[in-house]
């Protein structure tokens, strides 16, 4: 049983290295100025009108996209649940295929960024 707990080691290392430490750094830099002294000015800047407008727009867009996904996903889930297995696999493939566009576009973007400039 003790050996099984050791399997969590890589996950804990990854979590601390790439989640906990960056969050602590953001927290530190958010509450200090360039000299490293404590300040609330960085937090107060988040309440500026342009930042609040951007936050509101981001929240509105996320709410709208969530509602659109729910409206589209529930009927699809009902349709898929009523089909037998042979028909379902093709239907699922048809709906999953467009999601691969994200991976393709990200790959093409990296290709463009990393190509050799002439």
Topology of this structure?
Elements lengths: L1 H5 L2 H22 L10 H5 L3 H34 L2 H12 L3 H15 L4
Description:
With 118 residues, the protein is mainly α. It has a domain at 1-45. The protein is 79% helix and 0% strand. It is built from 6 helices and no strands. It has helices at residues 2-6, 9-30, 41-45, 49-82, 85-96, 100-114. It is extended. The model has no long low-confidence stretch (mean pLDDT 87).
Q: N-to-C terminal Cα separation, in Å?
A: 58 Å
Number of helices: 6
What integer value in Å does the Rg equal? 23 Å
Pattern of helices and strands: HHHHHH
Strand content: under 5%
By secondary-structure content and strand pairing, the structural class works out as mainly alpha
Largest sheet: none
List the defining traits of the structure above.
mainly alpha, extended, 118 residues
Could you provide a short overview of the structure?
The protein has 118 residues and is mainly alpha-helical. The protein has helices at 2-6, 9-30, 41-45, 49-82, 85-96, 100-114.
